[in-house]
Design brief:
By secondary structure, this protein is an alpha+beta fold. It contains 15 helices and 61 strands. The chain has three domains: 5-273, Transferase(Phosphotransferase) domain 1 (Transferase(Phosphotransferase), domain 1); 328-593 and 879-897, TolB, C-terminal domain (Neuraminidase, 6 Propeller), CATH 2.120.10; 611-870, Neuraminidase (6 Propeller). Helix 3 packs across helix 6 (156-163) and helix 5 (112-131) runs antiparallel to helix 13.
Amino acid sequence: MPDPLPRLVAALVDRYRLERELGQGGMATVYLAEDLKHDRKVAVKVLRPELAAVIGAERFLAEIKTTANLQHPHILPLFDSGAADSFLFYVMPYVEGISLRDRMTREKQLPINESVRIASEIAGALDYAHRHGVIHRDIKPENILLHDGSALVADFGIALAASKAGTRMTETGMSLGTPQYMSPEQAMGERELDARSDVYALGCVTYEMLTGEPPFSGPTAQAIVAKVMTSEPTDATVLRKTIPLHVADAVHTALQKLPADRFASAAEFAAALVGQTGSITTRTLPRRTREPRSAARLPLLLLVAATAAIAAWGWLRPQATPNQPVRRYAIDVAGDAAIDPNVTGGLALSRDGERLAYVGRSATGVEQIWVRDRNQLHARPIPGTDQANSLAFSPDGKQLAFITFGPLALKVVPVDGGSPVIVGDTALGAGGTAWGQDGFLYLAGGYDGKRGIVRVPVNGGAPVPVTVIDTASHALAHIYPSLLPNGRGLLFSVWYGPTRPSEGDIAVADLKTGRFEVLVRGVRARYAAPGQLLVVRADGSLVAIPFDQERLTMTGPPVPVLTGVAVSSGFVADLAISEEGTLVYYAGQPGNVSEEVRPVWVTRDGQMSAVDSGWTINRPFNGGLSLSPDGHRLAVAIAGDRTADIWIKQLDHGPLSRLTFEEFLKYRPTWTPDGRDVTYIVDPGNNNASAYRKRADGSGAPELLFKSDRGLAEAFWSRDARWLVVRVTVPTRDILALMPGVDSVPTPIVASTRFDERAATLSPDGRFIAYMSDESGQDEIYVRPFPNSDDGRWQLSTAGGSEPLWSHGGQEVFYRTPAGQMMAAPVVTTPSFTSGAPRPLFATTGYARSPGNRAYDVTPDDQRFIMLRSLDDAAARPPAQLVLVDNWFEELTTKLRQP
């Protein structure tokens, strides 16, 4: 039979250069190859010819498309797929590591903690895939890759495609699945498998990691299948007595013959592995008893405890004991990273007060989580936590939960080393996180006026509602969850958004019923062990209110106990309290940072002048400002009493007139190229948003341009008015474009399931699009051809960049740096795109900025910028300070006793 390799090499020669064979399996051969377009190493998996013939190219490509959309840190992503000559193939990253099979062959039995961690990571990947309608069907050690110790599940594609081939598979003598890891229903030939079949296979893999052998083995496949159907596996604790009983019970439940007796989801299995609540099958196998701890070990344990107590002295403070002096420290982070007190939930303290976590920006401009142990002089960055917010320590202080953008996801990371793991990726809001003793993470369900606080299992799973927003109150979100120590109730803040920006309400929810009651006005609340409800108010003061956590009621009047807590944007305030009385908070000037801003002109060399000295935006600027093509009018979005609307200002000293009056939020105004209309977004919530345009003089009814069920954050026109460029926000921020009246669906321009693309701007000739993306780990500015964006890509910024804007002359792209500079990058678009070294224009400190779009515009001659200047003059204010107070309960008790 002729060697097929030369044909394969020839078929892929224009895309991939095959270097060597990496291995063969029952269904495919894997080759190491060079991706010629992207200059990277990849693994090309080529189906066996007989399997390719059974599946067929059309079915294979259709099913592989489903798996291409699975994006999870523990799922090996799919780069490419296709048919070439008679070959069917797909392309994955080349992972420089080993498979789980390789490691098990080498070590036989894995450490128990390692086994549980790897199984939990696999379970997280499977749960994510199951929630997206994909069953793997072939989980086995060979399909689990280990990269830097973390698990990556591979081969979703072949299993899914082969499963659709039906009886044609058996006609070739091939079968899907491996006998040792087949669920009984799969071994019986059931076609309709669900998540519980994968749970069974993962139970087999976990059993083998722990014991060194699969649950069932035999000389032939038929013998193994017979045991799968009729026999019970040996109790794992008999083969390895150190296996914790809850781990063995979890594996035993996963291996039940009947699907109904197993865990309903991979997330439940993962939770049971770490001893959290879950459905555990009662075992009929003999149980072994635990040996009692030797009394002789007690002195040693006491010595260890004493040593630990001495070592806990950190940052020059003694342990909190009665009548100890109260001590305050300004935590110096100058040698670590600049703190950012404007990040929602950007501060966390472990329950024992020994670890502090905060969000800070390093000297290179990367904003991430930093952790400082009390016995260390400096903080250390936590890799993989870029753009983090909403921090929360685990009860034991060994892990951190956080929310990150790019895309929006809830993650958990080990503090002492390890990669972050996604545990939630849908319907979440960046509004603070609480880690409960019950194995759940509590967080905001999104800023859409529909969902309140939700909870997500620590090991992953779908969000479950805890509170429901009272829509009649015009609340936009429930944020800042904080659990009461007795586990009975949940404190949270009711946020009204731009409709009531100065302060929200503090509420408490009964976790048994989900009902909640508003208690008092405030920004954020926490419970303190002396029986006090601590509430941060909008003026930066902290009050203590007696609170009964059993009855969930306040029992006395508020008492002022502290001033000078930094509050920004009307609702961002951070403070944390340990169980033994350590307080940490961001301190700023007393009172809230003003929301008032004044539009100003700024020249290219930084000279500032007022647009209209009598005009101040004294309500929150709600996103977006745009100069008309002639530079004589300004469109802005400003919050009102119950909504936010678009306003038109005649420059410089003309009137300010309201353009929109309809219900719901309106934002991101942009002008049509002829200057007659203003395009803007109307957002009723729940990820439904639409782009409209309306005559700038207010006449006529708004015209619907585009309706989205993926959220909508930007909409603007190309210079020739043919293309409408939009940015959607769910599940990721992607840039799309359409020709209204021609296209029924938009065309993806820059759309990635892994990264966030934002703040798009078109060149005046319409041939190129600039945008910001976090694909490098931090936001940078990139340029692509438009609308055929796959024809090239160029990076303009070199040390971070945001809010790009193409000049009217077409020869520059402006953008802002994390260090606070307005930059101008010289560009040429004809005959092809080239760019030069960016040069700084002026400092942007003190001017409003926006994380996802522009908070400035430029005049038609490109000589002046219109920007928003805070009336508080941020440049003149001292930076927020991180303050730690030891034995603060002593001070609190003293103030509560005062008449």
